[in-house]
């Protein structure tokens, strides 16, 4: 039987790799994303079993596998914690959970690198070739940066840290720490001395913190995607060190997908990756222009009349809708309008919310058909012919100063052109600024009215007021 184990393991890795790729392909569409995640999960189970088959046999150990008790205990504890936290996490906190899980993946890769380098340095394993040493060190460096960087990203998203932390000469200081980490990594490869290895890991972990602290909250979708790509790369490198095909394939797929997503997110914000990591948000400088006018309130009854007798309505959701858990009522409102013959669409900015796809998940949860959800590039030409645009919880992604004020911190970021609508209504709890921390000129426009209040409560009032139009018929 033992002679067949390597063949069974290789077959399991092949099947797991196919399921990873198949699952990722299905995740590309909201219609099939759920099943894609399930197929990829099955692949991971198969890969885990295959990895157990490749462990060195030990006749004295449980079922012939050394430390099987610890392995199974780790799987059980991790599985229970993931299940419980996944069931309990609010949809508004999903970006934070993604950041944490991504960091754990990077940390796992770094831990593998640490163990392998420690074994090589103490003689616990035969001296490897230069390729293995370099990849073990690179994987440890990238995984360490992804671990601490993701933790800082989580803290920023969760409101536990100020959105930006800067000091004079910060970029030069960070560059020096980065060069030190690379230098210690090179020294690790050349000499494999334990004090050097410890210094290398400490510096790499500090680098992840310093890289992420100055990045503003508006750039977090790009940062999360970048660290996702880095985690995949680190896992692939450490998979080569362990000669584990599943880790190599899974890490490569995640790294490639994360890189593509990072490019798409940066493009959607008209940002280069360099400017995200090393510059403040936007290319503007100087003092932003003053916004003239005043915010003009409106009541729910008037908004219902505007929308109920409109020909075209576009609904623009943002993170505030998620906080208010208003997506179900907003969909009910859209259904009421469509029953009256109003043409309704939902417009989604690529970086709406706190992570890519956040708003799409919320609308799918509420049952909004996918053919009613329009991307920014598709819907922007339609705003001039839109009678009413209803903005709920969105802020920076609809701010027209991104196009009009070169001194604005968000200048150059593509936005949803709701200001070009015939009428715009903004549901907002108060007069605060958005995640980028700047005032929104849309709220002061002549064709904009503000419906102040909790998103879910205001949506509920709008549903009741639309039903009451024409005597409830």
From TrEMBL:
Membrane topology category: Multi-pass membrane protein
Main location: membrane
Name of the molecule in the record: NAD(P) transhydrogenase subunit beta
Lineage: Bacteria, Pseudomonadati, Pseudomonadota, Gammaproteobacteria, Lysobacterales
Location relative to the cell: Cell inner membrane
A single MF term (Gene Ontology): proton-translocating NAD(P)+ transhydrogenase activity
Coiled-coil segments: none
Residues spanning the membrane: 6-24, 36-56, 68-86, 98-118, 130-152, 172-191, 197-215, 222-241, 247-266
Catalytic activity as recorded in UniProt: NAD(+) + NADPH + H(+)(in) = NADH + NADP(+) + H(+)(out)
EC assignment: 7.1.1.1
Entry superkingdom: Bacteria
Subunit structure: Heterodimer of an alpha and a beta chain.
Record organism: Alkalisalibacterium limincola
Assigned keywords, A-Z: Cell inner membrane, Cell membrane, Membrane, NAD, NADP, Translocase, Transmembrane, Transmembrane helix
